[in-house]
Amino acid sequence: MNIDGFSIAAIVIIVVGTIWAFYEENIRK
């Protein structure tokens, strides 16, 4: 698997987005 800046950025965006969505879901209850 080729790891470059773009791949790292994409992974970070996905992870942060998932955590943020989970966080928002809990806060807005």
Strand residues, percent: under 5%
- As a percent range, the share of helical residues equals over 70%
The radius of gyration over CA amounts to 13 Å
Can you tell me the overall shape?
Answer: rod-shaped
Feature tags:
29 residues; mainly alpha; 79% helix; rod-shaped
Structural notes for this entry:
By secondary structure, this protein is an all-alpha fold. Helix content is 79%, strand content 0%. It contains one helix and no strands. It has one helix at 5-27. The longest helix has 23 residues, at 5-27. It is rod-shaped. The N and C termini lie far apart (40 Å).
Secondary structure topology:
Elements: H1 5-27
Brief summary:
By secondary structure, this protein is an all-alpha fold.
